[in-house]
Design goal:
The protein is an alpha+beta fold and 342 residues long. Helix content is 49%, strand content 13%. The protein is built from 16 helices and 8 strands.
Length: 342
């Protein structure tokens, strides 16, 4: 049933997206008029073929990765009754409890993330920003809680993405946006010509790329509905463990029994970055950790993180972060002293 929830069903799922954007429990009848719902592709293309008729959605703050929200969907068949107002009220009362349960149900993952979550990691309470056909923020209501310069650039990119889409052109799917310090934040951009669940016309999604250690902490059970992603998790963990020697593409692809071509293509589509980018993120994250500790010289850090030499380290580190290792270490010192990003 979950696996039948295709991308087309997601684009038509006004119930889930309304719950997410409003932050409250909703039913189908709260999102469509009776006539609209009776004619909707969501009913005829998704619910009816699976013997379903009624649906309610409960918003959750983090489904798998912190900051990437979603919704829990509850279904009933045509021989049952729709969700009552009393039931919806009860569900609304359990939203906070459900979010707490989801967080506490992954103790091992949470412990691993806590070990790696440094003050200088790129994060926000919500890490997805959605813009409508007028390049106005649909979600979250106040935009992303990030550096003002990054927000300004997201707004500009949203305008450009919508304009490109109207002309039938593709827009860059990977954006590196400098903050007020010049450090780069990596976003994945997805633009749809039409997204009925969120309105008419183009819709642009900007997702802050997870840190490499966050993917490593994901368990197969967390993404059981995504067979291909589950299949590639061993490759993620392998690259994170072996980044210091830069394993070849064919070596990683062999691990998950795919050709290098298909592994590269599916990895990029599912994780929003190429295997090469992921390896660089692993190198860069470890380099940041060592730089912040101030226990090793740059040449030693370069060697320990798999860079050919110090100048190669400086070049690749600046490519990934926008800053030289020395400048980044000074910034990290400021962040640690202040306890947060300024």
């Amino acid at each position: 049933m979950v696996k039948a929830y295709t991308r087309d069903a997601q684009r038509e799922d006004r119930v889930a997206w309304t719950a997410l954007t409003r932050g409250t429990v909703v039913r189908a009848r709260d999102c469509w008029t009776a006539e609209e719902f009776a004619d909707s592709p969501y009913l005829h293309g998704f619910l009816n073929p699976h013997g379903l008729r009624y649906v309610a959605a409960i918003p959750v703050s983090s489904v798998v990765l912190d900051g990437y929200p979603g919704a829990v969907l509850l279904f009933r068949g045509p021989d049952e009754n729709d969700f009552t107002d009393v039931e919806v009220a009860a569900m609304r009362g359990m939203v906070d409890s459900l979010n707490d349960f989801l967080i506490k149900s992954r103790p091992a993952r949470n412990t691993e993330l806590a070990v790696h979550r440094d003050p200088w990691t790129h994060t926000a309470q919500v890490r997805v920003c959605i813009y409508d056909s007028d390049a106005k923020v649909v979600f979250p209501s106040d935009g992303l809680d990030v550096d003002s310069r990054v927000r300004e650039q997201l707004d500009q990119h949203a305008k450009e993405a919508v304009a490109y889409c109207r002309r039938g052109q593709l827009y860059a799917d990977r954006l590196l946006l400098p903050d007020a310090h010049g450090e780069l934040w990596v976003f994945h951009c997805a633009v749809y010509r039409d997204y009925p669940a969120l309105g008419h016309g183009p819709v642009a999604f900007f997702c802050l790329q997870p840190e490499c250690f966050e993917w490593v902490a994901v368990r197969p059970a967390d993404i059981a509905a995504q067979d291909e992603m589950v299949r590639l998790l061993p490759a993620i963990k392998f690259m994170q463990q072996e980044f210091g020697r830069l394993p070849m593409l064919h070596e990683t692809a062999d691990l998950v029994h795919l050709s290098p071509f298909h592994f590269h293509r599916r990895f990029t589509e599912l994780f929003g970055q190429t295997p090469k980018h992921f390896l660089l993120s692993c190198q860069t994250y470890e380099a940041k950790r060592l730089l912040a500790s101030r226990r090793r010289e740059l040449a030693r850090i370069a060697s320990d993180c798999g860079f050919a030499h110090q100048s190669h380290f400086t070049s690749r580190f600046k490519q990934a972060t926008g800053l030289t290792p020395t400048r980044w270490r000074s910034l990290a010192d400021e962040i640690v002293q202040n306890g947060r990003r300024a």
